[in-house]
Amino acid sequence: ILMAPGDRQKAFVMDLNAGKVCEEWQGPKDFEFGALAPGTKYQTITGGSLIAGVNSNTVFRLDPRISQKNKLADNRVNKTNFQFNCLATNEEGNIGVGSAKGEIRLLSEASKIPKVLLPGLGDPIKPQGIDTTADGKWVLATCKEYLLLYNVTHKDGTKGKGTGFQKRFLKNEKPIPLKLKLSSQDLVNFKILDVDFTPARFSVGDSEEQMISTSTGPYLIVWSFTALKKNAAKARFLYKIKKLAENVVGEHFHYNSQKLVVSTKDDVVMQECTPGAVKRRYTHTH
Questions:
Q1: Exposed, middle or buried by CB within 10 Å (0-12, 13-18, 19+), for 8?
Q2: pLDDT, tens digit, for every residue of 77-115?
Q3: CA 152 to chain centre
Q4: Which residue from 105, 163, 165, 202 could staple onto 209, CB 3.0 to 4.6 Å apart?
């Protein structure tokens, strides 16, 4: 799905085999598309048609099966401009929405009022800077110099309604984010003068997520998500860092694999990344 620079009112579907645009999507008059995401996390593998999306004040879903160019299926327009700039879906089709204000909203459906508002730490969430685990129990947000990891599971763990996507939190149980960043020692050792993380992602596959990846400049960084869930205080500064020959533009995990697909300006490469390799501990300052 492509969008032309400067024209956010249209989206174009590209047929990669034919090498040409095969369909044009629009919303109602003057409706703008912002970020788009599959209707469910693994929709490209499991099948499905709906596309979730946001613009600065609206959460919506598109249905390509609608016969006219206006593909808008359902939406919720907010009178306030919340500066929505990114979204992610879980396997139930629930939607996590991030904003340039640093806030995260959890919705059961695009047309519903958010169940939960998670305040950030004051910095904008980057475009494309939100991800969820497939079961919706964890939410990951990317800011310029750090990541925020939220456990959005309710303490009662009610099956089917055990997360903030489905049910509001009590005042005394609202999730507190775990802040993930590079240690001050590594900033010195690797001569990193400016941290600018690419959107962080959970590993993907049929089993539970095991790792979290991001990058800054030519450096790939991977945390053990398994270790973070067991002992966050200890594992937050345990990560694998690797320098590549070029700056990293983006990276994502290959499905059911411990390999990262890494994009640079001029190349796409595969990088092996095992969670067992994340062993180092650093002296750090808070």
A1: middle
A2: 999 999 999 999 999 999 999 999 999 999 999 999 999
A3: 15
A4: 202
